[in-house]
Amino acid sequence: MEKRKTKRKTHRLYAFVVLLLAAAILALGILILFYVQEIEVEGNEYCTDQQIADTVRNDKYSINTLYIIAKYALGQGESLPCLDSIHVGLSAPWTLKVTVKEKPIVGYVKNQDNYAYFDKEGMVVSMSQTLLEGLPSIEGIDMKGIKLYGHLESDDRQIFEEILETSREVVNQDLTVDKIVCREDEIFLYIGNVCINLGSQVSSEQVAQIRPILEKLGDQSGTLHLENYSRSGDTITFDVGEIPQ
């Protein structure tokens, strides 16, 4: 009888040890199989892959792909101020696939040797020595406190807000603008060989007129006056000649 009891205890102990070893092997296998070896990033244009990868792996436990996915699934994952969204998935057990959507850039200002690119709210989303083509530069107004992820500031807040509104409307109308210039509290758009005077207050109705008018003007050079335009049908004039710089 004693021998049977001893034998049962031995079997139980053996089974426990086997289960413990199996659990340890399984845990070790998960750690090894799901250890982060690669991070694939897509959807980014001005944010670097490294910036995004560093954001995803921002704590000491972020060496495991399952941990990182769970973190983002629970809404605990970090993002960057320049991103509208970030989604983390797997392309392999050891490879994370990170898909992002960046905040659209509406313009830039020159800051010493760098270009400071900003979004529709005036936040600097990227600073680089590389010039991105197809974006308007902002000229004629002093900016202060230019830093990454900070908001652009100017002592002339009212005209600066109008410049931001102009930048937003230019993007909405899908216009390719060379530069937006503030001169004597009026805003001018430069598109090719045409200068467009928008006045001191900019509206979506004004900017919506630009494309169809430019199509009619063809290759003519001059200044298009929209500063007095409103939906009431004010006359639009075009002065042929050299454009002011």
Describe this structure in words.
- It is built from five helices and twelve strands.
- The chain is of the alpha/beta class and 245 residues long.
- It folds into two domains: 70 residues, Roll (Ubiquitin-like (UB roll)); 134 residues, 3-Layer(aba) Sandwich (Rossmann fold).
- It starts with a helix and ends in a 5-residue tail after the last strand.
Structural class: alpha/beta
CATH class of the largest domain: Alpha Beta
SSE topology string: HEHHEEEEEEHEEEHEE
- Domains (count): 2
Tell me the distance between the termini: 107 Å
In what range is the share of β-strand residues? 25-35%
Weakly predicted, low-confidence segments:
none
Shape: elongated
Q: Determine the mean pLDDT.
A: 85
Count the E strands. 12
**What profile does the largest beta sheet have?**
6 strands, mixed
The CATH topology of the largest domain is given as Rossmann fold
Roughly how much helix do the residues carry, as a percent range? 25-40%
CATH architecture of the largest domain: 3-Layer(aba) Sandwich
Q: How many helical elements?
A: 5
- Rg, nearest Å: 29 Å
Strand order of the largest sheet: 7-8-9-10-11-12
Attribute tags:
245 residues; Ubiquitin-like (UB roll); Rossmann fold; 2 domains; 6-stranded mixed sheet; 32% helix
Task: Explain briefly what this protein structure is.
The chain is α/β, with parallel strands linked by helices. It has helices at residues 2-33, 49-56, 65-73, 157-172, 204-217, and strands at residues 38-42, 83-92, 95-102, 107-111, 114-118, 124-128, 137-139, 179-183, 186-191, 194-199, 222-225, 237-240. It contains 5 helices and 12 strands.
